[in-house]
Amino acid sequence: MAHLLEARDLVRTYQVRRGLLGKPTPVRAVDGVSLTVRPGETLGIVGESGSGKSTLGRMLLGIDAPQGGDVVFEGQAMPEFGTPQWRALRARMQLVYQDPLAALDRRLTIAQQIGEPLDIHKVIPKEHRAARVAELMAAVGLRPDQGGRYPHELSGGQRQRAVIARALASRPKLLVCDEPVSALDVSIQAQVVNMLRDLQDMNNIAMVFISHDLKVVRNIADRVAVMYLGRIVEEASSDVIFKTPLHPYTKALVSSVPVPGKMLEGRVILQGEPPNPANRPSGCAFHPRCSLANDLCRSRVPALLVAGEGRTAACHMVEAPADAVAA
Ligand code: SF4
Ligand code: MG
């Protein structure tokens, strides 16, 4: 099996009302996104808020149903949310959110919650539960005595470790992490990201790592997809994206990431309004903020095309190599 997860042409629309009496109009949060994730690899999804990243993440797990396109996980079409078939898959694909306090039940101890998936998915016999919970806690760097504590008795970083331990309990093959460290102190972020990376390596877990923060993504992703207003505008290996970004939006994002020991030269400041799905510009949606925009950009949507070995970009100014085939 080449792909663990495959998404084709995903579309998700929601209704937005302009003003109190306005007619609800459909707004595309995710607009024709296709991607693949191989076993054990990390796909970073980056973009500003409003780019559709979180909606995409929930669609990849079948929590939000796509209105167009489909998701195939382990060779099987994603079952409808909440059905027994979907719940059966749930053990193998887990979600880690930004806010661990919201993800945890304040009335249950950390150990009780880390063990929950073991009960739900009946992955091990009851008598092995305590040992497995202890193993999971050790794996995420929690002390045994912290198992008896309640969420509010732990720090933010410790809570997120507990959420990650719980997500790993059922031995998933895919983790979708939506801004998993954005709520944590910067000093803690790297620790949690490094821990995630180690756990993922050891257990051969694939990860979709959603973040607005390129510094964090750079540290963990094998490949990076850049989203703007519901579409992928560039995708390549992490090395390639950070060394030679092609799309003007990616260039601006990458240029704002500090590289240790290097001055921020050639920094491109993003001008104009951040993306607003309710107000999609014509043609290339990035054109109001792009210094290269011309008439073609304002009138025609650029297709996501192969722009070199293992990379795609959606920009009229990016030349496709002579031997490229359509993405
Ligand atoms: Fe800029 Fe035009 Fe490329 Fe869009 S298509 S990113 S407006 S150059
Ligand atoms: Mg989000």
TrEMBL record:
Keywords carried by this UniProt record: ATP-binding, Nucleotide-binding, Transport
GO molecular function terms listed in the Swiss-Prot or TrEMBL record: ATP binding; ATP hydrolysis activity
Cellular-component GO terms for this entry: plasma membrane
UniProt-listed GO biological process terms: peptide transport; transmembrane transport
InterPro entries: AAA+_ATPase, ABC_transp_ATP-bind, ABC_transporter-like_ATP-bd, ABC_transporter-like_CS, Oligopep_ABC_C, P-loop_NTPase
Coiled coil residues, start to end: none
Transmembrane regions: none
PANTHER family found in the cross-reference section: D,D-DIPEPTIDE TRANSPORT ATP-BINDING PROTEIN DDPF-RELATED, TRANSPORT ATP-BINDING PROTEIN
Family to which this protein belongs: Belongs to the ABC transporter superfamily.
Protein name: Peptide/nickel transport system ATP-binding protein
